[in-house]
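quick one before i forget lol
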Amino acid sequence: MAAIVRTERLSKNYGAVAALADVGFECGAGEVVGVLGLNGAGKSTLLRILAGELLPGSGSVQVAGVRLGADSRAMRRHVGYLPEEPPLYREMRVRDYLCFAGALNGVPRRDLAGRVRAVADKVHVGDHLDRVIGELSMGFRKRVGIAQAILHEPEVVLLDEPVSSLDPAEIVGMRELVRSLGGERTVFTSSHHLREVHETCDSILVLHEGALIAHGTQAELGALADRERIEVEVRGTLADAARSLPAGAAVVATEDPGGGVAVLTIDLAGAPREAVVARLVASRLGVRRVEPVRSDLEGVFLDLVSADRPGRPGSRDPHADRGPDGAPTADQGDPERLEPGTELVRRQVGTRARRPLMGTGPEPPVAGSGS
C-alpha cells in the first residue's frame, strides 16, 4: 500500500526542550492511526506539523505526495484538522459556520449547500444545522468541528484528543464516528488513553518525550504483551524472594504490604511457573498465593513509556513545555505515575528492528487547514 503520509527525521524544539526528535514513519491510505502518549509526549506538536500549522525544526513531511515547505498551501488542501479545542464561532448557527468554513477551504459555492448537508448527516448533526453553536453540548461541538475538518474532502484528517471533555455516552458515539471516517480517508487521532486508540485504530504510533518508541498494528503491539507473568505472595522478604528465582525469571513489580509478607510480579520468560514456586518453597519462603497476571496492551504501553520518569536522571522537566505565562501548552499536563519496580522495555515493532532497552474568550483560529 502506498504511503499517504511520510515523515523523515522530524524534529521540533521549543528552546532547550525537544518536543519531537527524529520521528519517522509511513501510513497508508484509509488507515485509522492512533497517536498515543502521555501528556507532553509530543502528540499535538506532531499533528500541528502534519496539518501545516507549524513548521518543523528539521526533517521532512509529505502528505499525498506534497512536501511541507515546497508547497505548504497545496499540502494543507489535502488535510483536515480538528484541534483539541474546536475552532468554532459560538455565536454562529451550525449551517452558517459550516458554509463559512467550506468557503475558506475552497469548496465551490455551487456545491456548498449540498456538501454541508452531507457532512452534517455524516457526523450526526443534521438535525442541529439551525441551532446556535454555543447552545450545543461539547459532544455536538466536537462533531461540528469534525464536520469542518472533512468538508473540503481531504485525504488526511487529524483529530487531536477528540474524546476529551466528553461524557461516557458521547465518548462511545465519538469512537464510532472516528472509526467510520477510516477507509475513505486516513485518520490520525491522538490520545493518552490506550483504550481510545485500541477501540478505533488500525495502527498505533507511541510517542514518549518527543521520540517515536513504537509503531505497529494492533496485532504487532499485542505481540509485545505475549508474555507470561505471575503474581506471588510469600511470607518473607522481597530480597530473599528475588534471590530464590530460577534463571530467566525476573521481578518486574513489587509490593510490601507489611506483616512480613511480600508480593512480587514475576516475568517467567519461559521458566515454568512450577519451577518458580518450587524454588520459593525450597528457600523456606511460605507461598501464600500464586495468580496469573493478564498481559494487555495497556501493560505494554506502560512498559514502553515508564523509562526516565520525572525526577529521574535524564527525564524531561514537566514544567519545561509551559508557555511564557506559565500555563501548560496543549500537549503538556501532569505526568501519570507508575508503580515503582515496573519493568522497562522499549521496542520498535513492525518493519523496524526490535531493541530491548530498560464559548467565550479569544477569537478562535481559522477553521480547518485548507486555507
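fyi The longest helix spans residues 109-122.
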